[in-house]
Design a protein that fits this description.
Layout (H helix, E strand, L loop, with lengths): L20 E2 L13 E5 L4 H12 L3 E6 L10 E5 L5 H15 L4 E4 L26 H21 L6 E6 L11 H21 L5 E8 L11 H6 L6 H13 L7 E5 L2 E4 L1 H12 L4 H13 L11
Parallel strand pairs: 2-3, 2-5, 3-4, 5-6, 6-7, 7-8
Antiparallel strand pairs: 1-9, 8-9
Helix pairs in contact: 1-6, 2-3, 3-4
The chain binds nicotinamide-adenine-dinucleotide.
């Protein structure tokens, strides 16, 4: 099967849409009832908050984490999962598919904090620089991308398709001195930007990201940020609602919901508008789509080109 070459930037660039805050109401989430969700990094923080919210909405959840879930529920299935292991990820998807026959939504969320600044040099006995610690890329980026690859594999084979939400971060689009973490989170946003033009409208899978600011979780102890910096935080439940609305609202695709101190805004429209102002007529994706179209005339498919 070859990929869609359609240029599908459906971003709303209207002034009213750009960075306007919005509210998420309970009635916006009722369509999550009885839907099947797969969540990674589900045992703590934002993942756990999302699992709790989904269960409140009468959804079915297949939850993966290195740690056991701190709650039990007849609609919750836990599968011990390390997102750095392809075998583990394949197996949690199989559990969900076998148990429910479909997977409607996937939340690729597992993550850890930064491991290196690249200035904290580790050397061997000869004084030669050792390779830096890349665990953050393995979990926060490669783990998330592999989760999405499996989600797409399963969802494209089910008539109704599905939706995916990735946990990006406010550090996906600004300077942030946790270097490896920031690099990985830019990559997560980059993955969404790369994959969305290949999916809709021919493959009915929506992909969106969340970009939480400081949220009290296992990574951010309660009270610490406020006491140390004066900056306010938010609870995982606030962020969970941004995940849920991206899944519940079939009109959302390629969006990045930023949440800070309990306020929500869609950031991707503003970011892409800035990019469009810079590049003018030379939109890279439009050029790529035309190149692939032209090459298909020479018998070269998009997939053969590895695009
Ligand atoms: N807390 C914040 O302020 C904040 C802000 C922006 C983004 N995030 C992101 O939110 C996501 C969730 O983090 P959190 O803040 O809720 O932290 P958390 O530590 O409370 O939760 C992370 C969960 O991921 C799990 N996990 C870690 N490595 C894993 C692996 N290899 N395989 C499977 N599960 C693994 C942990 O066991 C834990 O349950 C992460 O991607 C993080 O980068 C957090």
């Amino acid at each position: 099967m070859s990929v869609s070459l359609a240029h599908t930037d459906t971003t709303d660039y209207s002034a009213s849409a750009l960075m306007a805050t919005f509210e998420i109401h309970d009635e916006d989430l009722v369509r999550l009832k009885d839907q099947v969700f797969l969540v990674t990094g589900a045992a703590s923080g934002i993942g756990l908050g999302t699992v709790k919210l989904l269960l409140e909405k009468d959804a079915y959840v297949v939850a993966g984490d290195l740690s056991e879930m701190p709650l039990q529920h007849d609609r919750l299935t836990f599968v011990n999962t390390n997102v750095t292991s392809w075998a583990d990820l394949s197996s949690i998807f199989k559990v969900a598919k076998t148990k429910y026959g479909k997977i409607d939504h996937v939340f690729a969320n597992a993550g850890i904090s930064g491991r290196t600044t690249y200035l904290d040099e580790q050397v061997d006995e000869n004084g030669d620089l050792l390779e830096p610690n890349h665990l953050v890329y393995d979990i926060n980026l490669k783990g998330a991308v592999n989760t999405c690859a499996l989600a797409i594999h399963h969802m494209r084979r089910q008539g109704a398709g599905g939706s995916i939400v990735l946990t990006a971060s406010a550090s996906s689009f600004q300077r942030f001195r946790a270097v490896d973490y920031t690099t990985a989170k830019h990559g997560v946003l980059g993955f969404m930007r790369g994959i969305t033009p290949l999916l809709q409208p021919s493959i009915p899978i929506r992909v969106n990201c969340i970009a939480p600011s400081w949220t009290t979780t296992g990574l951010v102890p309660e009270g610490f940020i406020e006491k140390t910096t004066g900056v306010g935080t938010q609870t995982p439940n606030v962020v969970a609602r941004s995940v849920a609305i991206l899944m519940a609202d079939a009109g959302r695709n390629g969006q990045l919901i930023y949440s800070v101190e309990g306020k929500y805004s869609e950031a991707e429209g503003t970011l892409l508008k800035a990019a469009a102002d810079i590049v003018g007529d030379v939109n890279e994706d439009v050029v790529m789509a035309k190149l692939l179209q032209a090459m298909s005339g020479y018998g070269v498919s998009a997939e053969q080109e590895g695009s």
